[in-house]
Amino acid sequence: MADQKGSEIAFERMKYSNFASEQLLTIMKKKIFSLMLGVVLAAPSFASQIADPAIPIPIIRTKPSSEGTHRTPEVIPIVCLVDADGLNVSVSFLSGMGDVDIILENQFTGEYSLSSVDSSLGGAVIPFSGTSGNWIITFSFHSGVEYEGEFEI
């Protein structure tokens, strides 16, 4: 009789133990599902941040200086990026060359933006409309040297 009572108690404990395990498993499944759902919903916003970095604008020299030609390749002293949203151009000057006039011009609409910057400050952020089209950015230094770049929005 004692063996039968002991086995009934063991059976009841196992039944409650299985019930608790099932409850725990259900709770864990819900938490994992919630976590996965959060990751799936958040992924597009992270992907758009990664996929839309600032776009570099290649810069070339259009008007030479009075120094003449050199055998070594010229280092362009300007790094230029257009923001992914197309509303700002970030300019970094690698060396101070004095005051510079910066013209942003949309070749399709004729719209333009003019800024004057002291290159010795190291850089500037130039806001513009971001209207779609082919844009040209021109850097005119007071020394007569000019640089130019093109980008499209």
Structural class: alpha+beta
Report the average pLDDT across residues: 80
Give the overall shape.
rod-shaped
**Percentage of residues in DSSP E strands:** 35-45%
The percent of residues in helical segments reads: 25-40%
Question: How many E-type strands?
Answer: 9
- CATH architectural type of the largest domain: Sandwich
Tally of discrete structural domains: 2
Walk me through this protein's architecture:
The chain has one helix at 2-51; strands at residues 55-57, 59-63, 78-82, 88-93, 99-106, 112-118, 123-127, 134-141, 146-152. The protein is rod-shaped. The longest helix has 50 residues, at 2-51. It has 153 residues and is an alpha+beta fold. It is 33% helix and 35% strand. The mean pLDDT is 80. The protein has two domains: 1-51; 55-152, Sandwich (Immunoglobulin-like). The strands form two sheets. Strands 2-9-8-5-6 form a five-stranded antiparallel β-sheet, with no helix packed on it. It has a four-stranded antiparallel β-sheet with strand order 1-3-4-7, with no helix packed on it.
